[in-house]
Design brief:
- 24% of the residues lie in helices and 33% in strands.
- With 304 residues, it is of the alpha+beta class.
- It has 2 domains: 148 residues, FAD/NAD(P)-binding domain; 100 residues, Polyamine Oxidase, Chain A, domain 2 (Alpha-Beta Complex), CATH 3.90.660.
- It has a 6-stranded mixed sheet, covered by helices on one side. Strands 13-14-15-12-16 form a 5-stranded antiparallel sheet.
- Strand 8 and strand 9 form a beta hairpin.
- The longest helix has 18 residues.
- The chain is globular, with a radius of gyration of 20 Å.
- The two termini are 13 Å apart.
Amino acid sequence: MIVIIGSGMAGLACARRLAEAGLSPIVLDKGRCIGGRVATRRVGDLQFDHGAQFVNAHGAGFAEVLRGLSVAGWQDGTGRTHNVGMPGMSAIPKALGEGLDIRQGVQVTGLQQDSEGWLVQVEGVPWPASRVVVTVPAPQVAGLLGAEHPLVPALAPVRLAPCLTLMAAVVAPPPFITRQDPDDPLSWIAQDSSKPGRPQGDATQWVAQAGEAFSLAHLDKTPEVLAALMLPLLCDRLGVTAARVTHAAAHRWRYARVTQALGQPFLRSPDGTLYLGGDWCIGPRVEAAWTSGTAIADAILAQG
């Protein structure tokens, strides 16, 4: 049995390639929804892509994948067009995960190797596996394998930055579609409801993502405190008062953006039974996660 830990884009890409080759991997994830940061939050009639804002392909392989998914072009107001999931970004991982054996809400607490393969500790119960693929953020790998595992030191150069995200509904004419300023505490602001297929109403739906310095400074605050802290900044950038806001909520992405990548598609144990991968192997793009997961699957298939 092949067990994949993590149902983000890397884990889904790996599982999809293996399943297409006739194997039956099991994907385990502690969260409620698949896709990791390729996510959509729905609150009543409101909807926010509060993680990855769009996805673009630089390579032919990922471009082919996108052509088979429900995506549409979104013009961000700067002359650039990006691919977005329809009706939300979460549609992309949902399509990739269709038909796969994915177990959400499952906490993996550790991995131990034995003479027959691996024991995946799932809430105190060992699951035997012939191969294990770990696609969690690099800083979380040591918690599963132990700091003494020989692959863990190779992760030391990898750096991931946090990102605090504000989701807000504002009843006022939108002054722009997107605003990007790396020196602003809100380094990215997007009129989320301008994306194709999004719900329309009296309120414009906005996503504001904080820069690295702001996110690091306030990472440990509660979502409620973060919303109260970030909303005045958004109102200022939009030129509106708080009275125009009908909804505001914040989300913390602790490992949001790769700032220093590993520099190779994955890590593998010498015996080929353990693989580590994710966007942190290659770079800060959704495509990087897909590339890493697909490369792991190809390596497993090559082993036979």
